[in-house]
Amino acid sequence: QLQLVESGGGLVQAGGSLRLSCVLTGFPFEHYQTAWFRQAPGKEREGVSCIARVLGATDYAESVKGRFTISRDNDKRTTYLQMNDLKPEDSAVYYCAAQRRFGSVCRLSQADYGTWGQGTQVTVSS
């Protein structure tokens, strides 16, 4: 059974940094495209970043470009989201998502991902 387990969330002051991790178990990690989404209270879930399994092509939401970096380590079966210069508006529950896909591009569309983690809370204080 495919499972995703996120970690790394927490409370940080504005301007600070956090690194989220998402470990995939149950199936070969290298077959899966992965992504990060987030949902703030009262708002819809939105795509933050994704990384394709081939060549590691990435995509980012406009609001996080230049501040967040997604990466993956196949040996550790882990997708990372390095978040720098955090802002209060980045506060949300962050979800990892995965989909088995043989492509060189990825999209920040929830419909593209069939498996989701339980989420990790990120809170940025002003």
Walk me through the structure:
- By secondary structure, the protein is an all-beta fold.
- 0% of the residues lie in helices and 50% in strands.
- It has no helices and eleven strands.
- Strands 2, 4, 5, 6, 9, 10 and 11 form a seven-stranded mixed beta sheet that branches.
- The model has no long low-confidence stretch (mean pLDDT 95).
Number of H/I helices: 0
* Percent of residues in beta strands: over 45%
Distance between the amino and carboxyl termini = 40 Å
Structural class designation: mainly beta
Overall average pLDDT: 95
Q: What does the overall shape look like?
A: globular
| SSE topology string | EEEEEEEEEEE
In brief, what are we looking at here?
The chain has 126 residues and is an all-beta fold.
Can you lay out the helices and strands and say which pair or pack?
Layout: E1 3-7, E2 10-13, E3 18-25, E4 32-39, E5 46-51, E6 58-60, E7 68-73, E8 78-83, E9 92-100, E10 115-116, E11 120-125
Parallel strand pairs: 2-11
Antiparallel strand pairs: 1-3, 3-8, 4-5, 4-9, 5-6, 7-8, 9-10, 9-11
